[in-house]
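Batch manifest line 611
LIGAND: pyridoxal-5'-phosphate
JOB: complex structure
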Amino acid sequence: MINYGIDVWGQESFIIEDGCVKVNYGNKPSLVDIVREIRENGHKGPVLLRFPHLIEKQIDLIYDKFNSAFNEFGYQGKFNAVFPLKVNQFPNFVRQVVKLGKPYGYGLEAGSKAEIIIAMAYNNDNAPITVNGFKDMEMISLCFIAAKMGHNITITIEGINELELIIEVAKRLGDPVPNIGLRMRLHSVGMGMWAKSGGINSKFGLTSTELIEAMDMLKSASLLEKFNMIHFHIGSQMGDIAPLKKALREAGNIYAELKKSGAVNLNAINLGGGIAVEYSQQAKKMDRNYKLEEFANDVVYLMKGIAAAKGVNEPDIYTESGRFIAASHAVLVAPVLELFSNEYESKELRLKPQNPPLVEELLDLLESMNDKNAGEYMHDAIDHMESLLTLFDLGYVDLQDRSNTEILLHLITKKFISLSGGSYLKEIKTLQDTLQEKYLLNFSIFQSVPDHWGLGQNFPIMPIHKLDEKPTRSANIWDITCDSDGEITFNIKNPLFLHDVDLQSEDYFVAFFKVGAYQEVLGMQHNLFTHPTEATVEFDESGGYEIKDIIQAQNLIDILDDMDYDIKEIEIRLRHKIADSRLISEEKKKEIMGELYVYLSENNYLRTVQF
Ligand SMILES: *Cc1c(COP(=O)(O)O)cnc(C)c1O
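JOB STATUS: finished
ARTIFACT:
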């Protein structure tokens, strides 16, 4: 059975049973049952499922592994974590993070004014808030207001000018002044696609000279006792643990040096985010070379060692990992709308009594191809096809001959692949692509997996049912945007096999896993495909589940409203065009207008007729 690497990326959160992908929790419902239930209530098109128990699983894991490491090494500091809102600010996610993190005092990280407002409104009492990113006077004032509300908030300084602003705002708004963190510019860098946040040339942070200058400024403004944290972030999705260790050594020593030079209340190191998620569907090509446990142990061991060597207190540890917390909670399920194949059968040939000689030759190659001559005949066939296409362009053969050429080449290619049994690998690779089936899925890559479009990031993809049948079609995926980049391609090295389905008589769903981090808010409205319908699947004590918090994908009118179209004007224009049209009879006009209104109230995704 093909398991689509579920044992590599699935963390035992999903399992295959009875031919279906099931949620490995509670009474283990299958994804396809959940999706059908949602669709039966009229929600067609793609659905984004949120599983709060998978958020809880990640929060538990991170606290558990760090606290175990603290115990094992007898570490004196405290462990703290905040969720970086930029990874997912959607309300049905954030409310769950806050609720599920409450027992731990899990906090929030904000990187913009709007995110600070979310943190101010929703953060758990006494849980930390950290604020990163570039700031102006208003943003810093918001932090002071949060402090006045009683929030435990730390502003991380990205550059000296921000410190000047804080000193100014402190004069105006007075106590309580938020805690102050300094972001270090490390010379060690992360690696991989998202490594740019670290390193000496990174966008963010203070050089060692600026750190010393910052300390002096704080001292003369009598704010030095507010400086409690140093911060770094070496990039997202750290696949390799080596750069982290290097960064920790550097950061640990900076911490100790600053402490020794008078930073009396400095007591925390914030590691930023970066803990990687396993997206790979192949055991041979894993995305990360460590487990969370190793990560936590390395942090604690290294910090303990540096603190001991330099004779300073062991710092509290903060993490801002977001991808690790959010990615696995969301699954996008998209219905397959159509299969586009180049699959021809010999009965489709329409041979003439008299065919062009090259077509006759193709017929001959097909009949006499065997395991000895397969390679040679294949090359001859490709050559003939190219000549025939040229003859068509020049007007010497007709469309019927061209169609026969297409079909014959397809049949020859199939025979070649079955006969050559692996030799001629290079040819097979290119030919296989021409035989690939295109599965048209009701979703937008730009909206739902933008990192695939922008960065080539892969997400685990698999059908969620029919898994007790052998998938026989080598597939590529098309989305419904009118953009040729709206495609996820696979090849012989990394194939995706899907089932041969008759969509006239059955439905077929493909799921994209681990889409809960970054994808939703980065999603683009290309062709005006907006956020898909979402639903939260929550389990109760008895193991049953409830589908809650359904938010429909925006309807057409709201989409246009969001683009700042004048909706009233659009309605008036449409109404007049129908009223004035001489192509619609008077008695039909009301009916047509009614039908138009129904469409305006529906979302932009396609509605499959049968299912
Ligand atoms: C983006 C970011 C994070 C989150 O990174 P992940 O890779 O999602 O864990 C944490 N801290 C800062 C400062 C960031 O910019």
